[in-house]
UniProtKB/TrEMBL annotation, chain A:
Similarity comment: Belongs to the ABC transporter superfamily.
GO CC terms in record: ATP-binding cassette (ABC) transporter complex
Keyword check for Membrane: yes
Protein name, as recorded: Energy-coupling factor ABC transporter ATP-binding protein
UniProtKB/TrEMBL annotation, chain B:
Keyword Membrane assigned: yes
Membrane disposition: Multi-pass membrane protein
PANTHER family: PROTEIN ABCI12, CHLOROPLASTIC
Protein name: Energy-coupling factor transporter transmembrane protein EcfT
A Pfam match: CbiQ
Cellular localization per UniProt: Cell membrane
Subunit-level organization: Forms a stable energy-coupling factor (ECF) transporter complex composed of 2 membrane-embedded substrate-binding proteins (S component), 2 ATP-binding proteins (A component) and 2 transmembrane proteins (T component).
Keyword Protein biosynthesis recorded: no
Length: 279, 265
């Protein structure tokens, strides 16, 4: 049996006494250096899970362990040392006035000596290919660049797990691709556990394991391949297959013939023009 | 770049004045503002004016640029001068304009006040021209540090200032976006009676405030997630250091102040 890194034991959570339960009896395990994707419809409780992991919220029932430590009021600062989190909106997590200052923020909080700080800032900005932007202010960066800085500031504190809560949701396809590439590279290099949260089925293909959430409960834990065999059921719990895939289905149903079922814009384009040139 | 409106009008550079520790600059300006009021002779005014103009030249920022930045203030300076001409009735009558007597005392006082005003504005704008807002924030944090003893939240104040600085351009961009969005829905900000235009601001402000609050909440969460727990035990990346050029500059300034008192009448 492998040592678990993050463990949820029968966790239930609601935002207030009168509010409905957002998570209902959720249990799962995430292992070190594993990539787990958490997917679910809007409001299924994904972000809540992320916030519970590093003690931004506490469950009313059940227990959460991170690296063997029970997450509670007394342990949150230790837990947060191991957990790096990137949120959805690139603007609202950029604290510093420049790229360099933003990466420094987490290090300053931990009381890292200045010289070591400078070294770590250099390495982590290099890791995300943002080392040419040291002194740039956030309003001179694109969304994707800001997210890369956010990832760099997480890497600088050398966490054991990185959680991306829809970190690419506000980016264009190119930005998304760049971020995912950066992340996978870094994960390979540093042996981190990686938790990516999304409601886009496109983004789970590379993960080791997928946790599908539905209405606050774990609906399925499986490999991406297994998840994709359940298209119909996924659709029923509000996880729509991507627009392109649907469009392709429609096109096929009116008689177009495709070689592969396209999953991205480019693939569809490719299929369409090959189809057209064969006509 | 459309960042002309960013507060302060910091012009990056490598001049001596740019490289001075921001605390040195702030302290010198602080005392300059006080000592300007001690000048009372042509020589003492000459000394302070020379100090200000030479400082402005040393920044290596184009003088025309600096003076253009003072445009709104020119009006005030000239206005002050004329106000004195009209109101002050000291000394002898120099000449009459349309049977309105202009006194010599009025000319002297008017020029003095206007000159002081001009020097104050020039010197303080040299600070914002050569010091980035974040340096000023750091300097304020450092200068106010002793107030920590009486529980004054120095660190929090500095953090608040730096976060405001960070978000001003973001909120500006957002204002522009919202106003375009509202304009495309037919809200008219630019024409019509004042009352209508003021009313047109409401659909601009409401979404702006809503989003600012949402930003604040998310930012607070992100800061906590990144381990922020207040000023206690924090280290700092940006470092302020008093070096020899600061000491020499301070010494020079002290000499000028001594000169000021020697040339007073
Ligand atoms: N601060 C809050 N106060 C009260 N209710 C909240 C709060 N944040 C979230 N909720 C509710 O909790 C439920 C789960 O929210 P959560 O943010 O975890 O969903 P999510 O799966 O991340 O959704 P999304 O895909 O939209 O990000 C939602 O029904 C939401 O309305
Ligand atoms: Mg969410």
């Amino acid at each position: 049996m492998r040592e678990s890194f993050i463990e949820f034991r029968n966790v239930s959570f609601r935002y207030g006494e009168e509010q409905p339960w957002v998570l209902k009896d959720v249990s799962f395990v995430i292992y070190p250096d594993e990539w787990v994707a958490i997917i679910g419809h809007n409001g299924s409780g994904k972000s809540t899970i992320a916030k519970l992991i590093n003690g931004l919220l506490f469950p009313q029932e059940g227990e959460i362990f991170v690296d063997g430590v029970h997450v509670n009021q007394d342990s949150i600062w230790d837990v947060r040392k191991n957990v790096g989190m990137v949120f959805q909106n690139p603007d609202n997590q950029f604290v510093g006035t420049t790229v360099r200052d933003d990466v420094a923020f987490g290090l300053e909080n931990r009381g890292i000596p200045r010289q070591e700080m400078i070294d770590r800032i250099n390495t982590s900005l290099t890791a995300v290919a943002m080392n040419d932007y040291f002194l740039h202010e956030p309003h001179r960066l694109s969304g994707g660049q800001k997210q890369r800085v956010a990832i760099a500031s997480i890497l600088a504190i050398s966490p054991k797990v990185v959680i991306l809560d829809e970190a690419t949701a506000m980016l264009d396809p190119k930005g998304k691709l760049e971020i995912m590439r950066t992340i996978t590279e870094v994960q390979d290099k540093l042996d981190l556990a990686l938790v990516t949260i999304t409601h886009d089925l496109n983004e789970i293909t590379l993960a080791d394991r997928v946790i599908v959430m539905n209405e606050g409960q774990v609906w399925l834990e499986a490999t991406p391949r297994e998840v994709f065999t359940k298209k119909e059921e996924l659709r029923r719990i509000g996880l729509d297959t991507p627009f392109i895939s649907k469009l392709a289905d429609e096109l096929i149903s009116i008689g177009l013939v495709f070689n592969n079922h396209p999953l991205s814009h480019e693939e569809l384009l490719e299929e369409l023009w090959t189809y057209h040139s064969k006509m | 770049m459309n960042n002309a409106f960013i507060i302060g009008q910091y012009v990056p550079g490598e001049s001596l004045i740019h490289r001075l520790d921001p605390r040195t600059k702030i302290m010198i300006i602080f005392f300059f503002v006080i000592f300007v009021f001690f000048a009372n002779s042509a020589a003492s005014y000459g000394l302070l004016t020379a100090f200000s103009i030479i400082s402005a030249i040393v920044t290596r920022i184009k003088l025309s640029y600096i003076f253009k930045g003072l445009t709104p203030v020119w009006f005030l300076i000239v206005f002050t001068f004329f106000l004195h001409l009209i109101v002050t009735r000291e000394g002898e009558v120099l000449f009459e304009v349309l049977s309105f007597p202009i006194y010599s005392g009025a000319v002297i006082q008017g020029s003095e006040i206007s000159l002081r005003f001009f020097l104050l504005i020039l010197v303080t704008s040299l600070l914002t021209l050569t010091t980035s807002p974040i340096e000023i924030t750091d300097a304020i944090e450092s200068l106010l540090h002793p107030l920590k003893r009486i529980k004054f939240p120095v660190h929090e104040l500095a953090l608040m200032m730096s976060i405001s600085l960070r978000f001003i351009p973001t909120l500006m961009q957002e204002t522009e976006k919202i106003s375009k969005a509202q304009a495309s829905r037919g809200v008219d900000f630019k024409t019509g009676p004042i009352k209508d235009r003021v009313q047109a601001i409401v659909p601009l402000l409401v979404p702006l405030f809503v989003s600012a609050f949402k930003r604040a909440e998310e930012l607070a969460m992100a800061m906590e997630a990144r381990g922020y727990q207040g000023g206690e035990g924090r280290t700092k990346l940006r470092e302020l250091r008093i070096v020899n050029r600061d000491r020499y500059t301070a010494l020079l300034f002290i000499l000028i102040i001594i000169g000021l008192f020697l040339t007073r009448s």
